[in-house]
Amino acid sequence: MAWYDNLLRRRTQDKKQVRLNQRTFQGASTGRLFSDFSSTSASADSEIQPNLRILRARSRELARNDSYVARYLNLMISNVVGKSGIRISSKARDDNGKLDMSANQQIESAWKQWCKKGIAVANGRMSFLDAQKLMVETLYRDGEVLIQHIPTNSNKFGYMIRFFEADHLDEDYNDIASNGNSIKMGVEVDSFDKPVAYYLFKDHPYDTLHSRTRKHIRVPAEELLHIYLCNRPEQTRGVSPISTAMANIKMLNGYYEAEIVAARTAASKMGFFTSPDGNSYVGDGVEDNYAPVMSASAGTFEQLPSGMQFQQFDPTHPSTAFDSFTKSILRSIASGLNISYHSLSNDLTSVNYSSIRQGALEDRAAYQIAQQLMVDHMIEPIFKKWLESSISSGAINLPIGKFDKFSNSTNYVCREWSWIDPLKEMNAHVVGLQNGITTYTEIAASKGIDAEELMEMHQKEKDLMDQYGIKTAYQPFGNKQPVPAEGYGETEDEE
Fold it and tell me: Does residue 361 belong to any structural domain of this protein?
C-alpha cells in the first residue's frame, strides 16, 4: 500500500501549495483584472536602452511646448540654484586650530574671479552661475548631463569646463573592450560597474546644420562628470523624471486642445437650417466652403422661407467638469514630478497658511535633495579640480603639499529660503535658540549665509556704530537672550 500512501502525501502537499498560493501578494495576481498589468524582470539597462533616445526627445519637446513642464524646470532652477548659485566658504585651519584667514580669503577671491563669464566655461558664453542653471535644467529635462574637465592655457587658473549633451554618449554602443571591461550604452565599466571611460561622439550625432562624423572619442572617467538620477543599483544611464508624468501631460494637452476647439466651434457657429424636402437655403450669401451666411443684427427678426426651420447649435464647452477634471490630472502630474500641485499649477485658490506651508516644506525638502546632488556630483568635484590646477599654475600662492587641507575644508552655501510668514518663522528660530534645539549656524544656512560671514558682518557693523557713537536698543549675541516679536503665537484667519 505504499503507492496509496504516496498518493495521499502528494495530494496533501498539493492542497498545502494551493492554500499557500492563495495567501500570496494580491499585486502578483494574474487573474482577469490583472491581465493588462505588464511587468518585467529585465535589468535596468535593458529597460532603459531601447527607450532612452525617444524619452529624452519627448522630454525636450514638452519643455519647448508645454507650459507646465516649462514651469517645472524653471522652479527647479530658481529653487535649487537661486539668484547667486551654490557658493563656497573656505574653512581651512592652521595647526593651532585657528582659521587660516589668509589662505581662505585667497581661495574664495580666486574662485569668484574664475566663476565670471568667459573664464569658467570653455565656450566663453557662460559664467559658472549660468553653468549651474544649465546643469539643473539639463539634468531634470534629459535625465543626465556630461561635463568635461579641460586643462587650458587660456586663463591663469589653467582649468575650465565643457558641457556635452547626453546625445554624444552613444546608447547603442554595447560591447566588450579589449581590456575585458564591459561597454554599456557608451560607458566602459570594470567588474564592479565602476565607470572607467566614456565613448563620446566627436560631433552631435543629430546636428543638421553641419557635416558630422559618428567617430567615437574615448574619454577617461577621471576627465568627465557623468551626472544622472540613479533609481536602480546597476543603472548606467539616466532617465528624465518627466518620463513618469509624460503620458498624463500628453493626454492633458490633448484634452485641452479638444475643449478649446469645441469652444471655438461653439462661439463661431449659431445653428443649422433644415428643410423637410431637403432643399438648401443659401441665406444672404455663400462662403467659399458653400456654407450659407445670414446676416444678423441686434433688435431684428428674420423670416425664413416656407418650409425652412432653424435649429440652434448650443454646445456646452468647456464642460462643467473641465476644471475639476484638469485639476485631478494636474495633481497626478505634480506627484509624478515630486512637486506640490499649487507650485506646478500656480493655482493658489482655496489655500490657507497651513496648507501652503506644508506644501512649501515638502517642495523645499525635494529642492534640498537636488542641491546636495549638485554639491556632491558637480560643485565639489569641479572645485577640487580647479583648486589643484590653480595652485599648480601659481594663480593661488599656496603649497600644493597642503592641497588636501584646503580642498577638504570647504563649505558649500546654497540659496536662501524665504517664508510665507517671516514673523512666525523668525519667532520660531528665537524659540529654538532659547531652548537649545537650533543654532545660529543652522539658521544662517537656511538663509543662504555662512555663520562666520554673518558674525563678521555683525562685528563690522558694531565697529562702525562705535566709530560714529551710535547706540542700538538691541545688541546681537549680547547678554540678553533674543525675545520673540509681538504677536507671536496669535492665531489668524487662515482663509
Answer: no
Residue 68 near residue 249, CB atoms below 8 Å: yes
In a domain? residue 76: yes
Cα dist from 208 to 165, 166, 211, whole Å: 15, 17, 7
Q: Considering the domain boundaries, does residue 269 fall inside one?
A: no
Give Cβ neighbours of residue 319 (< 8 Å, ≥ 6 apart): 259
Work out whether the CA dihedral 471, 473, 478, 480 comes out positive or negative: positive
Identify whether 249 is part of a domain.
no
Residue finishing a domain among 181, 209, 241? 241
Alpha helices in 95-236 (DSSP H): 101-114, 128-142
CB-CB contact of 450 with 413 (8 Å): yes
pLDDT tens-place string over residues 412-431: 989 877 766 777 778 888 88
What's the CA angle centered on 43, arms 42 and 45, to 5 degrees? 120
Burial 333-370 (b: 16+ CB within 10 A, else e): bbebbbbbbbbbbeeeeeeeeeebbebbeebeebbeeb
Query: What distance in Å separates the CA atoms of residue 410 and residue 393, rounded to the nearest whole number?
Result: 21
- Of the candidates 391, 413, 450, which has an alpha carbon nearest to the alpha carbon of residue 84? 413
Please give the tally of structural domains in the chain. 2
State the Cα–Cα distance between residues 312 and 274, nearest whole angstrom. Answer: 11
Beta-carbon-side half-sphere exposure of residue 385 (alpha carbons within 13 Å):
21
**Nearest partner of 386 among 157, 129, 221, judged by Cα:** 157
**pLDDT > 90? residue 216:** no
Cis peptide before 292 (omega within 30 of 0): no
pTM for the full model? Answer: 0.78
Q: How far apart are CA 70 and CA 65, in angstroms?
A: 8
User: 273: which 3 cell numbers?
Assistant: 437650417
Average of pLDDT values for 452-470? 80
**Per-residue burial over 417-430, b = 16 or more CB atoms within 10 Å of its CB, e = otherwise:** beeeeeebeebbbb
Q: Which of 178, 211, 241 is the last residue of a domain?
A: 241
Domain span holding position 137: 47-241
